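Hi, here's the filled form for the chain we discussed.

Project: internal
Contact: R.S.
Residues: 245
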Amino acid sequence: MATFPDDPVTNYPLVVEPQWRTQITEVDSGGEQRKQKSLFPRYNVRVNFKLMTNAQIQAIWEFYQARKGAYESFYIYDLISLTHDAQYVGTADGATLILDLPGKSTSSQTIYSNGIELTEGYDYDILTGGGDSDADRVDFGTDIFGGTYDLGILFKWNRSDSWEISAGELSSQTQILSLVVLNGEIYGGTYPDGKLFKWDGISAWEEVAGQLSSQTQILSLVVLNGEIYGGTYPDGKLFKWDGMS
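And the returned structure, exactly as it came back:
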């Protein structure tokens, strides 16, 4: 999908007017019955320019003609950072796993499905850029990973009938006892040295924390408030990763 030209620069702020589809029926008593016809608003956007060169006017005209007037949709981005609620992302069709967000360089997103708040890193991941006109994206195609014994290999399910190797043995660690996701990245707790590793997203592990005070196994990992906690053996201790080493 095309993006509205960024030259010439519009006068900000843009004038943005939400429009809701409401069916209004007048009844005999003189009152009205109103019915909501859409779950999300459609926005009318008005831009203003103060001074334009002939070349800039020509560029806007050609953009309009290429869209065939009101026939073809296009993106226009408001450069002012605002908080937007109840924005439509897309409708599930049973096949599409990645949808464009209505913005780019977004942050602090909360995604809902049928009115239910979803969990980032579990139900979905946010992808920065890469969409139409470099829009940010939401990826619902959460993969299933498994850690193994006795070679400590990370596998990913192919969403059909088999597993694919994602990373080989973890530096002599023979078992991946626990896995957790933080900020879209996979971490694994191991045996026999009780180390914490981070998957590079391609084919290898990176050690991010060494052995935990003679603890030989990280039996469980959990994320709380953006931090990783691990439960260990043989002393049953709870550790928090400092995010460094």
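Let me know if anything looks off before we file it.
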